[in-house]
């Protein structure tokens, strides 16, 4: 049963998300993967820090989305993706897909907006900067995420914990390790995120950045297949733990959303 | 045969036209004289350099997603808008320097203008003026186009600008951004430029956009 229905942009119609539900139905746990950018919007250029060929951010995010979808599907988790190819999608359209998919997910949900950047180091986990608000039958479109911020922060914590169990070359550089391998460094932050701010599900934005040493030189770039694999596996592990936590918290309701 | 009254009308119109032309020529000459006189009155010496004052620049660090406050002695103009622009220009100059903790390519005039205006009344609040100000920061298109793309880097730029304004101009409660005088959806693909940023809610050095857990 839907607990909170975000309104479609510019409308105050009871229909919409509450009744519209495409791929996801029933009491399943749903994961929404939003590969950022696409089509004419290539995003940033990444992967050239060590003299490699620059790759458009949209390609990295799509690769991450496809790999994560495969991992989750193999583990029996229902996945909805906002795009499977090189297509343009507005941020509102991404939020609509996520909200439709998770509208009737009595088994709980988790939404991910996947990004890549050449700036910073490690994985940046962002939660909407909206102030937490009480849920209601209607939520303003642009701030619908405010009713889910508390759960989004918890989801971000679960992802951060999962990343601590990874091991990659150059990892742990921020922890004082000069070289060798260690966990993927992660930072948690809050930001205004068009699209995510309109999602009615626990939602985080994951930004994959190169792993840098203390001298800020790139050790492992975002195009590194091992780095991508480690990140995707950590996210899959975090999602499984999130799902288990929801089932433990509310076995009958299946972790219904706030 | 032309009637007499028509001859008189044509004659009157001709006289009026000549008179109006003479008046217009005279007015033009007087305007030209005023312009020349104004030029003569223009100052011939450069304005005095503003005295250096202590300013706080809130500088971002990409490595851990935090921000720190740096105190610098800067010659800042007394006018609020000019002071705000000078502060942001200085902050962006730091980002453009080699070895910057938050590298952002510099452009000659990254901040076109900063406007300070009374904070607009919010619906549901009292009509009494809050005393706060809204700063509208007009960034150059070249700066926005050259800014690195990414959630963290863009958020840090926005938040460090807001925090720097707040640290030096406490009356600035809200900040909006324009690029080349026009609204723009994002800075470089991620940070939302359509919203109004509240300086109290944006990052202070204690609450950065990202923090290493």
- Alpha carbon gap, first and last residue of chain B: 104 Å
CATH architecture of chain A: 3-Layer(aba) Sandwich
Largest interface, C-beta closer than 8 angstroms, per-chain residues: A-B, 33 and 28 residues
Mind describing the biggest β-sheet of chain B? 4 strands, mixed
Order of helices and strands of chain B: HEEHEEHHEEE
Read across the widest sheet of chain A, the strand sequence of neighbours is 5-2-6-12-7-11
Number of DSSP strand runs of chain A: 14
- The poorly predicted ranges of chain B are 203-213
Mean pLDDT of chain B comes to 86
- The number of distinct helices of chain B, counting runs of at least 4 residues, comes to 4
Number of domains of chain B: 2
Largest sheet of chain A: 6 strands, mixed
Q: Give the helix tally of chain A.
A: 4
First-last Cα distance of chain A:
11 Å
The coarse overall form of chain A would be globular
Biggest sheet of chain B, strands in spatial order? 3-4-5-6
The helix fraction of chain B, in percent, is: 25-40%
Rg on CA atoms of chain B, Å: 27 Å
The SSE string of chain A, one letter per element, is EEEEHEHEEEHEEEEEEH
CATH fold name of chain A, please?
A: Aminopeptidase
Determine the strand fraction of chain B and express it as a percent band: 15-25%
